[in-house]
Amino acid sequence: MKLLIESGSALAFLMACSAKVTGLLAVAWLLAMALRHQSAALRHRAWAAGILSSVALPLFAPLLPAWHSAALAGAAVWGPAGLMAVQARSGNFPAMVVNAMVVNASAVSPLFGKLAVILLLIWCLGFFVLALKIAGGLARLARASAQAKPPLQNDWQRLAAEFSQSLRISRRVRVLQCDHPLAMPITWGVFRPVVIVPASASDWPESRRRMVLFHELTHIARYDWLLQICAELARCFYWFHPLVWIAAANLRQESERACDDSVLNSGVEASAYATQLLELARTLENSSRTWATALAIARPSTLERRFIAMLNPSINRKQISRGAGLFTMLAALCFLLPLAALRLPAQDRSGGFGGTVRDANGSAARNATVIITNRKLNTIIMTVSDADGSFAFKSLPLGEYEMKVVKPGFAVYRASGLEPSEESSQNITLQAAGEDGNALPGLEPGVKPPLPLDGGVQSAKIISKVTPVYPAAAKAARVQGVVTLDAVIGVDGKPLALGVRNAEVDPELARAAVESVSQWRYRPTLLNNQPIEIATTVVVNFTLMQ
C-alpha cells in the first residue's frame, strides 16, 4: 500500500509539472512567434527562458511554500463546503428518487495506485534511455577532447585569443585538432570551453578558419552549450511532452542563426559565408549522432533555413545585450516562482486516514456518517462506516482536518487537528444522544432547522447531478436496496448535510449514495425572493439488471 501511495504522489507531481511546463513553453512559443520579425538572438532568449524554467520547475516546487488557488480547489473538490451529516424526521419532506443501475466498477484507489506504478515505470524507462544517451554523448566528447591535440599552426590560438577579446570571453578557450580528417567542428564546455576542429582544418584557407572559429566562439560567449544541455535534460525529464521536443529543436536552431548573424555582423559577406558552410556540409561527416550533446556548425538538418536567413538582407541581426538578457531571465523567474509554488488539485496527496466507529457497548456502528473538513482549503468530504464500523479516506490533500461522526440516536462526535498519513487511525466511540429538541442531529443545539419543502417554498432544482456508481462488492454479492437520505441544501445550492435514514441498508450502497449526492448542485430555493436553506429527502434505488 505504501508503494501505491508514493507512486500516486509521484505521478501527481509529474502530471502537475507537465501541466505547468505546458503553460511555460506555450508562452515561450507565443513570444517567439511575436518576435518572428526580430533577431534570432532575441527569439533564442525566449526559448532559453522557457527551457530553463522547465528544468528548474521540479527543483523549485518542493522547496517553495505551497499556495493553492481557490478557483482550482473549488473546481476539483467533490465535497461541498460546510457539509455535515444529519438525520431528519421521516415523513416531513418530499423525496427525490434516483435510480443507480449496475455498472462495471471496482475499487478506485487501489486501481489508481497500480496504474500509477505502471505509468511511473514507463516514465522511468524513457528517462533512463535518454539519460544514457546524454551520458554517452558527454563521454564521447570527453574522450575526443582527451585524444585531440592543439593544432600545429599557432594562428588558431592567436585567432581564438583575438575573438575572445572582441566577444568579451574571460574564460580560456582551448582549440584542439582531432585525428579524424572529416569530423565536424564542434564546441562544448562551460568553464573550460573546447573547440574541436578536424585534422583537415590544417589545409583550410584563412577566411574559413576565421568564419568557423568566430562562429564557435560566439556559441561560447552566449553559453549556448549550457543552454542546449538544459534542453536535453528537459527532454529527458519530459520525454513524453511534444512541446519540450519542439522547444529544444527551436533553441538549437535559433542559437545557430544567432551565431550566423554574429559572423555576418563582423563584416563577412553573406554569400561567402554560405559558400563556406555548404562546403563544410559536403565534405565533413554528419556528426549529429556522434556529437548530439555538442554544437556543430554545419548540421545538414539546419542548413536550409540558415541559408535562407543569412541571404536575406532584410533580416534583423542585432545581438541581445547582457542587460536585456538578464531582464528576460528575471522576468521568467518572476513567472516561474509563483507557478512552481502553485499546488494543483492532483498534487500533495497523502495516504489519508481511517478508523472504526463503535457504540458505548463496543458494537460496530454501521452507516455512521463521517465528515472531515479542511478549513484552509474550504473542503468537506464525507463517507459512511461499513458493517464492521470501519471507514477510510484516501488520497487526501495535505493539511489539517476536523472530523464529525453523526449517527441517528447518538451524540455528534467531534475531533480536530487531524493530519492524514498512511498510519493515521481513529477509534471512535459514540455516546447516546441526550434530550434535545433539535430534530436534526448533527446541527448545533438551538440552531433553527431548515424549512421543509412545501407549497409555500419554491422547489429546489438540480443544476448538476452525479449518478451513484453501483459498488463492485455489492454487485458481486447481488445486493440491492434503497438508500433514503435526508438532506439540507444551503443558500448557495450545495448540500450542507446528508444522513442515512434507513440505517440498516447495506453500508456499501449507503456510502455510494452519500458520496454521490454530496456532489450535487441545486438552484437556490427562494422564499420571498430570498435564498434560504431547505430540507429534503433523496431516495437512491440500487437495482441489479436481470
Task: Identify the notable features of this structure and list them briefly.
546 residues, 42% helix, alpha/beta, five-stranded mixed β-sheet, elongated, single chain, disordered N terminus
Task: Write a compact overview of the structure shown.
By secondary structure, this protein is of the alpha/beta class.
Description:
This protein has two domains: 76-105 and 350-543, Immunoglobulin-like (Sandwich), CATH 2.60.40; 117-340, no CATH class. The chain contains 13 helices and 22 strands. It has 546 residues and is an alpha/beta fold. It is elongated and about 100 Å long. Helix content is 42%, strand content 19%. Strands 2, 15, 17, 18 and 22 form a five-stranded mixed β-sheet that branches. It has helices spanning 2-34, 40-60, 70-76, 108-147, 155-166, 206-221, 224-237, 242-265, 270-283, 300-310, 322-341, 472-476, 507-517; strands at 67-68, 95-101, 174-177, 186-188, 194-197, 295-296, 342-343, 353-358, 369-374, 379-384, 390-393, 401-406, 413-418, 425-429, 451-452, 461-464, 481-489, 495-500, 521-523, 525-527, 530-532, 534-543. 39% of the residues are buried. Mean pLDDT is 78; it is low at 1-5, 70-96, 100-109, 286-291, 437-441 and 454-459.
Low-confidence stretches: 1-5, 70-96, 100-109, 286-291, 437-441, 454-459
The CATH topology of the largest domain, please?
Answer: Immunoglobulin-like
Q: Identify the CATH homologous superfamily of the largest domain.
A: Immunoglobulins
The computed structural class is alpha/beta
The number of distinct helices, counting runs of at least 4 residues, comes to 13
CATH architecture designation of the largest domain: Sandwich
Number of strands: 22
Specify Rg, calculated over alpha carbons: 33 Å
Mean pLDDT over the residues: 78
For the record, give the distance between the C-alpha atoms at the N and C termini, rounded to a whole number: 36 Å
User: In CATH, what is the class of the largest domain?
Assistant: Mainly Beta
Q: What's the main sheet like? A: 5 strands, mixed
Tell me the strand percentage band.
15-25%
Shape estimate: elongated
Query: What helical percentage do the residues reach?
Result: 40-55%
- How many domains? 2
